[in-house]
Amino acid sequence: MTTTAPDLHQRAEAAILDLIAARGPEKTICPSEAARVLAGVGDFRPYMEPVRDAAAQLSDQGGIEVTQKGRRVTVGEARGPIRLGHARQEAADR
């Protein structure tokens, strides 16, 4: 089955949101966890860019928060590992 880019993006968003919800309000996930969900038993690395793109869009919409070393960042400015979590209320009020 061929996966279209919009379908992959929607699946990446769903994986991120499902994992964050399952983890709990004070916890975060690594984007690779969502990529692994998308990959199943295969190599997850090709899914990292679509997951980061989906995370960027969700963050821009205020649906999630992206952090690096405990500091709020955008996916575009982050260099290296990031974490994804629930959007904190004070962050959403900015």
What topology emerges from the helices and strands here?
Blueprint: H1 5-23, E1 28-29, H2 31-39, H3 48-60, E2 64-68, E3 71-72, E4 83-86, H4 89-92
Antiparallel strand pairs: 1-4, 2-3, 2-4
**CATH homologous superfamily annotation:** Winged helix-like DNA-binding domain superfamily/Winged helix DNA-binding domain
Shape: globular
Q: What value does the average pLDDT take?
A: 90
Percent of residues in β-strands: 5-15%
Order of helices and strands: HEHHEEEH
Q: What share of residues is helical?
A: 40-55%
Overall CATH architecture? Orthogonal Bundle
**Reading side by side through the largest sheet, how are the strands ordered?**
1-4-2-3
What's the CATH topology label?
Arc Repressor Mutant, subunit A
Total strands: 4
Written account of the structure:
The chain is of the alpha+beta class and 94 residues long. It has a single domain (5-92), classed as Winged helix-like DNA-binding domain superfamily/Winged helix DNA-binding domain (Arc Repressor Mutant, subunit A, Orthogonal Bundle). It has 4 helices and 4 strands. It has helices at 5-23, 31-39, 48-60, 89-92; strands at residues 28-29, 64-68, 71-72, 83-86. The mean pLDDT is 90.
Question: What's this, in brief?
Answer:
With 94 residues, the chain is an alpha+beta fold.
List keywords for this structure.
about 90 residues, alpha+beta, Arc Repressor Mutant, subunit A, 4-stranded antiparallel beta sheet, about 50% helix, about 15% strand
